[in-house]
């Protein structure tokens, strides 16, 4: 009996049920509190459209976070890549826009990976330094002015464009995790880097690939972000720091549900849940400034439930 | 105390000297001197005028107080990202209370900081969650609270507290904080305990260090000192907006790393890291402003210098696997 | 079958800092034999075999397999040359499925133009698991859902499915139940029957003698001898391992001294979930109480439990004056010392000076009105480190620079400086060379004469027989036998209670 229960607890459907219960719980709470201005089908659809942007970044961060690394330059790269994309779109249309965002994104990932590998400094520290640099680069590239996406080029600003692009990103993630070695190797490096090295895994190479993949997804996120908001302004002063954390929340969901073999679903649903909570508060009349409180509080609860260290383990 | 490990190196080998701990320990001082001299030359001596120095000094106080608290957390090998939000929230509390009583306001500010530190410490110790994740969460949370409290207008402070904006008072507070912290770090078991936890937590626990308590208290201290810094901030600015203390945590991290504080914490931290680091960061900031660079150029230069410094000073031996 | 030389090791050498782990070892191994590789802890047997398998780089000398020189940089390259290893610690990786673990680094057969066929991988993994008789393990499951023994079985499949010419089994049997062991022996025999070779590393000499053809003995990193298993007894092997007659000046020589009636520590019904249950015993003044058993029997946890370092401990640990030991600080304050088996993580702070390691528990005693004097701390550390004859440049040297033996001296200096009367020493001579070992044994005998009590937890039976006044043997988390010090007491007597 307990054996079958154990079996069930480790199965994919159990993970799915867990996610659905959380989703329904938060939906239910806010629906009961403010039935009028929360949670209609069209409302939900708009929550989803904003949350999938973060889910895309969450998928990218998953590669880095499972390896035990971290990246604070995600936000800076969203800004930089979207500005590069918008500028190129003025000359080459959609082609310039998409390739600009993706190309710049991936290139930045390559730079981060190379510097991390060669400086031998923790990723958290390298990316703080690079965040400063990329932010100022973005200002230089933008020439200090607000960059607006041409109205002709806003296919990705709403449904179905954004859904299609995000869907493609999720499919790509699914393919990489299940049909290439990269997912396996990233997990192996995260589990025990020394053993992984002994199994012939080129750890440096896969860390570089991890950063490049992350920032390829950041490139996609840049397309979606600037399309959704239609403009992008580059600012210095570490203002992009806050953009790092919304995708990170999805990633934490993904890592927590890795044991049910459904990280991508967890990333998407997790971001959707956060979006529901935030919009629920807004529907209750809270000012939008409450967003950070919700983000921080939700993240705190998630990690408290999922990322706890074992007894006696050393946690820094 | 001399470093015995240097006996291994032959004095003639310049290369091994540059890789030695002595050199790494000296590097922040060298860096500070180089930056001061370079800025002095580049600004044609303007940075060392009394007026400039006063301005520079006025920007040192509160980062240095905050850095002192964070120093203890980083000696543990942990990280605290909440200083900015804590400073903002504590400043709001101080401003609001300043209309009733100034001692009460100061106490309120320190308690607010200590409470946030206690929350961080509690989650970190009880749930065994990585400090940087916890403090990112609480940074967000309290940044949101600040934003909420300042949604309509900025929070003004009383005229009485603004009247305290005197240099000697700020200097006294800063020096007092540094002296007390230095005394605790150097002459009581607190210093030994935090360094031991940073170098080897399990072995420290097995040698009788109350590791959980040490860690918790370090976070409380970081919060409380940020509360003290908030007081200095309030008397200087007089009215608190949503962006008060924005990104302070990253500035402090950069300053301490520039000061030579190893990111792994532990035995190789030096109290001088706080002073050298904060001074270097402030001189760099000021010099770049004086040179008339645009903010993006300033930030680019800061980023590059930061990376070079970390690469030169980091203690790779203490990191088994670099994550 | 005609003998054919399979592996030649020529002057293999390896240093870790100042430790000469493997010292110019040369040997040959034939195809179709099971070769035992034995030696005390720190004799270099694991380092030697891990160099062969590409886990450590080769410090000096060459390995030749079938006449061809080996240049492997990691386990996968070793696998491709026909060498596989099952390691002592956990060799499987969490976060991966069973099949991904089995084929890690060898995904090529399942890749088509860069696309992985996970279904085929799972199917092949399951086929292998079924073939080995481990059908209860499912290839598509996450490895995290399986316990240590099942994960070891997965490792066995991983190491052997590609039919290596040489399989190294490094201390694997301790992790296996009787059934698992039988499976492993069967696999070993099958490899031999196939004309391939096994290198079998084990502490269990009985097991070594009954399952190998020949045995190579290493001591302090040096090659000692290779003998035919059929000609040897366990005592013969032991003599080769230790390098002298057992019972010589190495250990205590006294017998028949009475144990004091004075009880200094009473342990009552102490349990730790999944580790030990209802352990009760008394420790007397001036007694060396030995704890023995297989490495997973729970004895190491007993040491932690006495020191109140266990999680979720129940039961009581009481001193003669009735003080209950319920936290590490209480334990230290009341004169209990603990030296862990995991020296580098739990005993010494590696990245810290010798001085600060030694003063740590005594710091409150050295402070006056809560204030510390740097000079006083240094003098204190210097005195105790020098008394222990620690090999160092100064007390400011970092512990990470010291050899295993000197690290242990720092640990002992710490507790002797604290003036502890009850010393819990877990594996005190693990990974330590013979000379320092001898010094530690002499110190223990000396402390005992001073009336201090010692609990010595050890995986090495000769050490227990040689040093302890009384020996408690543990099995599956409970005390399974008690022996008094006696020259007639034999290893077999103890082993009988262990397995």
Task: Explain what this protein looks like in three dimensions.
The complex is a heterotrimer of chains A (316), B (323) and C (499). Helices cover 74% and strands 1% of the residues of chain A. Chain A is mostly helical and 316 residues long. Chain A has one domain. In chain A, strands 1-2 form a two-stranded antiparallel ribbon. Chain A starts with a helix and ends in a 10-residue tail after the last helix. Chain B is an all-alpha fold and 323 residues long. Chain B has a domain at 61-256 and 265-271. Chain B has helices spanning 14-19, 21-42, 50-58, 61-75, 83-97, 102-126, 131-149, 159-162, 167-187, 189-199, 201-205, 211-237, 248-258, 272-290, 295-313; strands at residues 155-156, 239-240. Chain B has a two-stranded antiparallel ribbon with strand order 1-2. The longest helix of chain B is centred in the last third of the chain and has 27 residues, at 211-237. Chain B is globular, with a radius of gyration of 20 Å. Chain C is an alpha/beta fold and 499 residues long. Chain C contains 18 helices and 21 strands. Chain C has helices spanning 45-52, 75-81, 98-102, 118-132, 148-160, 178-193, 205-211, 234-242, 299-306, 328-333, 343-347, 354-359, 363-366, 374-387, 404-418, 434-449, 461-467, 491-498, and strands at 5-16, 19-30, 34-38, 60-65, 68-69, 83-86, 111-112, 115-116, 166-170, 197-201, 214-219, 222-228, 263-272, 276-284, 288-292, 314-319, 336-339, 422-426, 453-457, 470-475, 478-484. In chain C, the strands form five sheets. A six-stranded mixed sheet of chain C has the order 6-9-10-3-11-12, with helices on both faces. In chain C, strands 17-18-19-15-20-21 form a six-stranded mixed sheet, sandwiched between helices. In chain C, strands 2-1-4-5 form a four-stranded antiparallel sheet, with helices on one face. In chain C, a hairpin with a 2-residue loop joins strand 7 and strand 8 (115-116). In chain C, helix 14 packs across helix 15 (404-418). Chain C is globular. The chains are: A mainly alpha (316), B mainly alpha (323), C alpha/beta (499). Chains in contact: A-B, A-C, B-C. Chains A and B meet through helix 5 and helix 12 of A and helix 7, helix 13 and helix 15 of B.
